[in-house]
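>> received
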Amino acid sequence: MTMQLDSPSAGVVSATETAQRWLSSFADLLRSGSGAEDVLHPDLWWRDLLAFTGDLRSLHGAAQIDALLASAVDQQVRGETLDPASAPAVVPASSGTPTIQLLFRFDTRTGHVRGVARLIFEDGVWRARNVLTALDALAGHEPAIGELRPDGSEPDGDRKEYWSAQRARELDCHDTDPDVLVIGAGHSGLALAARLGVLGVRTVLIDREDRVGDNWRDRYDSLVLHDAVWSNHLPLMPFPSSWPVFTPKDKMGDWLEIYSRAMDLNVWTRSEVVESTFDPGERVWTVVVDRDGTRRTLRPRHVVLATGLSGTEPAVPDLAGAESFAGELLHSSRYRTDPARRGARTVVIGTGNSGHDIAQDLYESGARVTVVQRGPTHVVSGRTLSARGRMRYGENTDTEVADLLDASTARLDPQFTAGLQAGVAALAESDRELLDALADKGFALSDGVDGTGVMMLFLTRNGGYYIDVGAAPLIADGRIGLVSGATIERLDADGLVMSDGTHVPADTIVCATGFRGILDTVRRVLGDTVADVCHPVWDLDDEGELRSVWRRSGHDRFWIHGGNFMLVRNYSKYLALQIKADLAGIALPDVR
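>> returned
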């Protein structure tokens, strides 16, 4: 089983030969459960997405790895092969030790698995320091895509019903209840419904907006996505190659509507949950939906909340003296572009993405703008970030491969942290002129959690950063004013009084202060009975996995789904597989 080499630089065997030998040994280990010392590095970090644990797990240490290997033996691994989508290659390593990266596939009793391994050479042996195993499809329930796509040339079965009539019947749920009810038809809900649809799962989405995409269209005029196009594709239907790098909000709204139609998704707009109950014996929901004034009772087996991980309930600061303020005071969720604010004295409280975006929108509308910074903020240029991101997500990227690689490193692995820190430092050097100019204005900068920048701020706080798409230079050169280093003591009729005695005059105050969290939305939409048993949501657990998102929520057959476009595209697959397995009576592995 051991692979002895004189030196990895001596060219004794190629990367492909080494990868193939290691993969054969790894598969033997998964079948037998013995011989790990010859295949796995003692400091192994193993990320498993459903394949052997039935959950999203990051494992480290002998006890956890041994439990996973015991589960793997029961899964009867077979058909191991290198993944033709990406050839094994020697990749740079910060430690200076050569690393071979390989992608692989194999089958198990449960389904089809894809994976990634990174091998390092020590004591004449190549062993895996990092492994990802990810369930890609359930055996016998493969998605109806590619060669398995529907024929479409004639009606199915004996009904003799053509496509338009069939779609109308499916949309109305005329014949049967949906298997899954998804609350929220933004990018998260649509991506999941598309994944479920190709698995043959009957799904209905409800959304209170008039049209799919209005959650983007109805926002301030200057809004564009902060992430570049290459990482933002939705499942199964990428953007056209002419799509702009940073997507304008109305264009994104239109694309979501196009996507919902192209993917044959059943979306009920102008619809909201009126009441809901869950029968724990039958494991079935009863949900009363107000659909544009008409009440319908649905009995889905699963309910998914996909209304945004920050929640929909505004976090409005308790500002002393608010009742005496003579101007306009509103939360960012209610902010819309208004030409009537031209020349007005406007103040934006908060310096995250929304705060900066709204300040920029106000400035471009002709208002006189000041931002109030409440705490240090990590700032990085969107173009700088996208240029670095194109090392993985670029013009000619295989998105599925990029998603596997993105998922392949455990977030608590010190090497992952070191890589983030090095990347953030490099980004800061690229943005040095902008960052220095902000600091000179008194803007309090942060490099994130232990120097890890946007990534860990997003995963732990879902905030505390700004990916610059135009506002930062306006602050740096003084076109947008800045108040930082003092707290808001109170409001008076004409503006804000700060703790250092400064008075900030205002006709309009916008609180870009975030939302209370998704569990408050659960409580409002589905009630206390559901919310009270849900686990905490977001932030990292003790393995470095996000809590209660795309995985068991704490309430049977209730799921929480969301994230940015990249995470939603990737992890909607694993949520869809869990739901499909439950509906099909397939027991996923269970490693605690």
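>> Confidence is low (pLDDT under 50) at residues 1-12.
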